[in-house]
Amino acid sequence: MSLTHDAALSPSAGRRFRAYTAKHLDELTARAGLSDNERLAIRAVATVLPFRVNSYVIDELIDWSAAPDDPIYRLTFPQADMLPQSDVARMADLLRQGASRSEINRAANEVRARLNPHPAGQMELNVPSSAGADPLEGMQHKYPETVLFFPKQGQTCHAYCTYCFRWAQFVGEPDLKFASGEVDHLVAYLRRHPEVTSVLFTGGDPMIMGEGVLSRYVEPLLEIETLESIRIGTKALAYWPQRFVTDPDADETLRLFERVVASGKNLAFMAHFSHPAEMRSDLVHEAVRRIRDTGAVIRTQAPLIRTINDSAATWAEMWRTHVRSGMVPYYMFVERDTGPQDYFAVPLARAYEIFRDAYAGVSGLARTVRGPSMSATPGKVCVDGVTEVAGEKVFVLHLIQARDPDLVGRPFFAKYDEKAVWLFDLEPALGATHFPYEAAPPEDPSGLVAGSANL
């Protein structure tokens, strides 16, 4: 690996990291030309949902002449209509009255509780301890071959996405967090479960950690023979590429990546790119080159987000750019059923059209991508298409990944619903009473299916 890099990158190269939080919102949103009342509404939303950006996002990614409609601005800054108008008005009144922090937090928590802070059973999936007592915090074993690990020091990000399904991690409420600082527990669990071949470090963003801390989590895994791959889920390439180029420990971090690859394990860098604008900086291309030089594979993924990337042309441009840079398009996700889903969600029928049109507009090398995929409780459910069977218009779906491996790859059908935005909005089609991942409903003694009397 070459540790040299282009010295003439961008004005942001070499700068120290600087974060902007909710206390800077009024000043920053003024740059977008918003009125006093508009800025107050945005601050009200930020009392409920987390906000954090940094100098690179502010100076390099956002086109302030196009704000507030600029996609990166919308990707990182709260919008007044992300929450019900009554909730925004209530929080704005508290701010206007100078309410205490505790009073604001109480009201904000009431709103958060209605936003499904832990979709797909996140808290319930924590790994049980070997003694069957309390679960091992910060570990999830949803699929037989994969364990998710949430390192305690990685439970923040260089900047927060407004659509993030893990927003509850960042609002400062301990009861909403899940994380672990105990890598020994992870190692012991993997030795007891040789069926686990892949560990995914996630969060937050593991790349917020310095190399010294990251090494303490990663290096013990290199001795586990049954482990085939280590994955790192991160948005750092988009939001702070300096992490791999000019940060003080950038070179040491890349050497850690080299050690993972040299150990014979696959290092998969799961990079989140939500819009082509995140790839337009020379700095991010240099970061990609340096990571790839270590032998790591970069796979790219993002959710489909209304008002930000809900067009086939946007996705096709992203995938083509990723392929040119040597990255592998991996997933288009459906916005999860949490937080401001009503604001960002795209109906499944429209999501499929966007995916299909983008997929048709790229070469075979970009068609490694899968989607639109819902990361739901049963697993990753892919919308394969819309068709007509026996006179009924249906969605065709299959499980890319499933908690029950026997269900993987088996097609199933749901009634077509142009308004459905999530798996649980769908109903079985073609006379079926349940989906393959659901238990069959009990039969009524009368011969009718239980619960059907009101149909």
TrEMBL record:
PANTHER family in the cross-refs: L-LYSINE 2,3-AMINOMUTASE AQ_1632-RELATED (PTHR30538:SF0), LYSINE 2,3-AMINOMUTASE-RELATED (PTHR30538)
Cofactor: pyridoxal 5'-phosphate
InterPro entries per the UniProt record, alphabetical: Aldolase_TIM, Lys_aminomutase/Glu_NH3_mut, rSAM, rSAM_sf
Species the sequence originates in: Salinactinospora qingdaonensis
SUPFAM superfamilies (alphabetical): Radical SAM enzymes (SSF102114)
This protein's record includes keyword Iron: yes
Keywords per UniProt: 4Fe-4S, Iron, Iron-sulfur, Metal-binding, Pyridoxal phosphate, S-adenosyl-L-methionine
UniProt key word Lyase: no
Protein name: KamA family radical SAM protein
